[in-house]
Amino acid sequence: MTNIDVTTAHLGERAAAPAVCFVTLGCAKNEVDSAEMTKRVLSAGFDVVEDPSAADAVVVNTCSFIQAATEESLDTIFDICGLDNFENGSAKLIVAGCMPARYGADLEDELQEAKAFVPCSREDDIVEVLCAVLGVRPEASCDAFDSPYAESPSSYVKISDGCDRFCSFCAIPYIRGRYRSFPLDDVRAAVAERVAAGVREITLIAQDTGRWGEDFDEPDTTAHLLDVLAREFPATWFRLMYIEPQGVSDELLDTIAAHDNVCSYLDVPLQHASKPVLRAMNRAGDAESHRALVERIRARVPGITLRTTLIAGFPGETDDDFEELCAFLEDAEFDYAGVFPYSAEEGTRAATLDGQVDEEVKIERAQRIRDIADAIGEGRVSARIGSEMDVLVLGREEDGQLFGRAMCQAPEVDGVVYLEEGEVGDIVRVRIVDTLVYEMEGELCDGR
Ligand code: SF4
C-alpha cells in the first residue's frame, strides 16, 4: 500500500512544503502519539495544518478501544474522504493508531480510501510513510520549527506502552502489545522538552502507570520516577493517571504526599466491586479490599482527590452483584467516576462469556451508578466553596471566558475553574466562590 514512487522532489526544492493535518481521536495516549508524529513531520520539513481541507495528506490517528470508538473513527474517516481535496484526488489519507493495530489486513481490505496504514508500533516511521504516499523526499534535518508543546501550559508524557494484565473485557493488550516501560532518561527528556516549551503541568500516562520500571533489568518504581521528576522540575506540576490498584504502593503514596508539585490526585480504575464479577473480568480484589485501598490512600495522603472507572452490566452480573457495586460506591465517596455500560469487544474473552446482560439493563444500571457517583461528586465539588487553591491558567473558551485547572482536576474529565483574570501559563492563588455540577468559579486571592 505504501510502495509509491519516491523518486521525486526533495522537500526543500518544492515551492511549498506539503501540508499534513493530524486528526486525533480517542484518549490522551493518542494525543501524545500525534504530538510525537507532528514533531517528526515538522523536523522533516513538512508543514502541519489544522484544517484537513487545506492538507495534502491527512493522518487520522484512530481509536478502537471499544466498538463505539471504532465507529467514531470510521465516521471521521468518511467525513474527511468527502472533503473537496479528497474528492478531487489531490489529498491522501493515512490511517494510523489503534484501528490498524487491531484489525490489520482486514482493515486494509475494507478501507480502500486509505493510501497507507500505520499501526501504533510503526508510528515512528510516519515521515517515510508520508514521503512514499506524497512522492517526496524529506529535509535532511530541520530544527527551525515551533515545538508542538508550546501551544498549551499542560501536556501529557507517556511513561510506558502496552499492558500485560489481560482484563477479559479489554482489547488493549492485543492493540498495544506487551507492557514496556520507557527508560527514565527518555521520560526526563520528554518532560524537559515540554518544560522548555513553557508547559507547567505534566500528566504522566500509560495503560498501567503503576508498573513502570518492573520490566527493567534493574527494576525501578513509579514512586522513584515521580520523585526524580518532581525534584528536577520543581516549578512543574506532575499528575499520575491510570494506576491499577496493585500499583498503589505506600512508597508511591508517600511520594505524592511529600511533593508540593505532585498533584494530590489518583485515578484508580476499579471496574467493579463484586468478587465474582471481578474474577470474570480477570481482575483481583473485592469490595472489602477496595474499601481498604481507599482508606489507605486517604490515610496516607489526606485530602487526596480520587477518581475511578466502573463498568455496569458485565456478563453474569446479577442484581446482587450490582447492588454490591452501588453500596461500595456510596461508601467510597469518589470525587469523580467514569461509568460505562459493558461493551462486548470482538476478540476478547468476555465477549464469549455466558450471561450477557440485556442492552437496556446495562444502560439502566450504568445510569444508576452515574447518578450515585454524580450526587457524591457534585457534593464534594460544592464543599470546596470558600477554600483556596492554586490554579494553572490554561486559556479562554470560545466565548472568551478565562479558565484554568486546580490540582484536584484532571485534564478533560473533571471540569475546570473559571476565572475573571490571570495570564495563560501562570499559576494563581484562587478562592472558590461558586460551583456548577463539576465546574468551579474562582476569584484571585489578594496579592496573587
Ligand atoms: S489493565 Fe487496563 S489496559 Fe490493561 S487489560 Fe486491564 S483494562 Fe485493559
Automatic annotation (TrEMBL):
<dbReference type="InterPro" id="IPR020612">
    <property type="entry name" value="Methylthiotransferase_CS"/>
</dbReference>
<dbReference type="GO" id="GO:0103039">
    <property type="term" value="F:protein methylthiotransferase activity"/>
</dbReference>
<dbReference type="InterPro" id="IPR006638">
    <property type="entry name" value="Elp3/MiaA/NifB-like_rSAM"/>
</dbReference>
<keyword id="KW-0808">Transferase</keyword>
<dbReference type="InterPro" id="IPR038135">
    <property type="entry name" value="Methylthiotransferase_N_sf"/>
</dbReference>
<dbReference type="InterPro" id="IPR013848">
    <property type="entry name" value="Methylthiotransferase_N"/>
</dbReference>
<dbReference type="InterPro" id="IPR023404">
    <property type="entry name" value="rSAM_horseshoe"/>
</dbReference>
<feature type="binding site">
    <location>
        <position position="98"/>
    </location>
    <ligand>
        <name>[4Fe-4S] cluster 1</name>
    </ligand>
</feature>
<dbReference type="InterPro" id="IPR005839">
    <property type="entry name" value="Methylthiotransferase"/>
</dbReference>
<keyword id="KW-0963">Cytoplasm</keyword>
<dbReference type="GO" id="GO:0046872">
    <property type="term" value="F:metal ion binding"/>
</dbReference>
<dbReference type="InterPro" id="IPR058240">
    <property type="entry name" value="rSAM_sf"/>
</dbReference>
<feature type="binding site">
    <location>
        <position position="170"/>
    </location>
    <ligand>
        <name>[4Fe-4S] cluster 2</name>
    </ligand>
</feature>
<dbReference type="InterPro" id="IPR005840">
    <property type="entry name" value="Ribosomal_uS12_MeSTrfase_RimO"/>
</dbReference>
<dbReference type="GO" id="GO:0005829">
    <property type="term" value="C:cytosol"/>
</dbReference>
<keyword id="KW-0411">Iron-sulfur</keyword>
<feature type="domain" description="MTTase N-terminal">
    <location>
        <begin position="18"/>
        <end position="135"/>
    </location>
</feature>
<dbReference type="Pfam" id="PF18693">
    <property type="entry name" value="TRAM_2"/>
</dbReference>
<keyword id="KW-0004">4Fe-4S</keyword>
<dbReference type="Pfam" id="PF04055">
    <property type="entry name" value="Radical_SAM"/>
</dbReference>
<dbReference type="InterPro" id="IPR002792">
    <property type="entry name" value="TRAM_dom"/>
</dbReference>
<dbReference type="Pfam" id="PF00919">
    <property type="entry name" value="UPF0004"/>
</dbReference>
<keyword id="KW-0687">Ribonucleoprotein</keyword>
<feature type="binding site">
    <location>
        <position position="163"/>
    </location>
    <ligand>
        <name>[4Fe-4S] cluster 2</name>
    </ligand>
</feature>
<feature type="domain" description="TRAM">
    <location>
        <begin position="382"/>
        <end position="446"/>
    </location>
</feature>
<feature type="binding site">
    <location>
        <position position="167"/>
    </location>
    <ligand>
        <name>[4Fe-4S] cluster 2</name>
    </ligand>
</feature>
<dbReference type="InterPro" id="IPR012340">
    <property type="entry name" value="NA-bd_OB-fold"/>
</dbReference>
<keyword id="KW-0949">S-adenosyl-L-methionine</keyword>
<comment type="similarity">
    <text>Belongs to the methylthiotransferase family. RimO subfamily.</text>
</comment>
<comment type="function">
    <text>Catalyzes the methylthiolation of an aspartic acid residue of ribosomal protein uS12.</text>
</comment>
<feature type="binding site">
    <location>
        <position position="63"/>
    </location>
    <ligand>
        <name>[4Fe-4S] cluster 1</name>
    </ligand>
</feature>
<feature type="binding site">
    <location>
        <position position="27"/>
    </location>
    <ligand>
        <name>[4Fe-4S] cluster 1</name>
    </ligand>
</feature>
<dbReference type="GO" id="GO:0035600">
    <property type="term" value="P:tRNA methylthiolation"/>
</dbReference>
<keyword id="KW-0689">Ribosomal protein</keyword>
<dbReference type="GO" id="GO:0005840">
    <property type="term" value="C:ribosome"/>
</dbReference>
<protein>
    <recommendedName>
        <fullName>Ribosomal protein uS12 methylthiotransferase RimO</fullName>
        <ecNumber>2.8.4.4</ecNumber>
    </recommendedName>
</protein>
<keyword id="KW-0408">Iron</keyword>
<dbReference type="GO" id="GO:0051539">
    <property type="term" value="F:4 iron, 4 sulfur cluster binding"/>
</dbReference>
<keyword id="KW-0479">Metal-binding</keyword>
<dbReference type="InterPro" id="IPR007197">
    <property type="entry name" value="rSAM"/>
</dbReference>
<feature type="domain" description="Radical SAM core">
    <location>
        <begin position="149"/>
        <end position="380"/>
    </location>
</feature>
<dbReference type="GO" id="GO:0035599">
    <property type="term" value="F:aspartic acid methylthiotransferase activity"/>
</dbReference>
